[in-house]
Amino acid sequence: MPMQTTLLTAGLLGLIFIALSVRVIMVRGSTKVMLGDGGDQTLLSRIRSHANFAEYVPILLILLGLVEYINGTNTLVQAAGATIVVARLCHALGMARPAPNVFRMVGMLGTFVPLVALSAWAVFLAI
């Protein structure tokens, strides 16, 4: 059973992860801070944006993949995958701006809504 939605979502999120990694590396190079943030606010913001992505994306992909595997590809699975990609991109953009801002809010909501929905769906499918 192909899991095209999860595969596409993971691929797009992987590209975003690389971009976030490069953004951290660029500031590390310019500030010569190789460990931690060295008190640099730009570096701290980029580190946290990268870390936040790394914290949420794995569980989202696991849930998306399991739901798609058990339930099959459908419009809701596709909508969840698209929402996750857009949300994580918005969150990354929002982290580069002063808080609070609309990008960060959309990113947060667009992460939590699929997380709750996919978690509940997974529990439903399991029982």
From TrEMBL:
<feature type="transmembrane region" description="Helical">
    <location>
        <begin position="53"/>
        <end position="70"/>
    </location>
</feature>
<dbReference type="Pfam" id="PF01124">
    <property type="entry name" value="MAPEG"/>
</dbReference>
<keyword id="KW-0472">Membrane</keyword>
<keyword id="KW-0812">Transmembrane</keyword>
<protein>
    <recommendedName>
        <fullName>MAPEG family protein</fullName>
    </recommendedName>
</protein>
<keyword id="KW-1133">Transmembrane helix</keyword>
<feature type="transmembrane region" description="Helical">
    <location>
        <begin position="106"/>
        <end position="126"/>
    </location>
</feature>
<dbReference type="GO" id="GO:0016020">
    <property type="term" value="C:membrane"/>
</dbReference>
<feature type="transmembrane region" description="Helical">
    <location>
        <begin position="6"/>
        <end position="26"/>
    </location>
</feature>
<dbReference type="InterPro" id="IPR001129">
    <property type="entry name" value="Membr-assoc_MAPEG"/>
</dbReference>
<dbReference type="InterPro" id="IPR023352">
    <property type="entry name" value="MAPEG-like_dom_sf"/>
</dbReference>
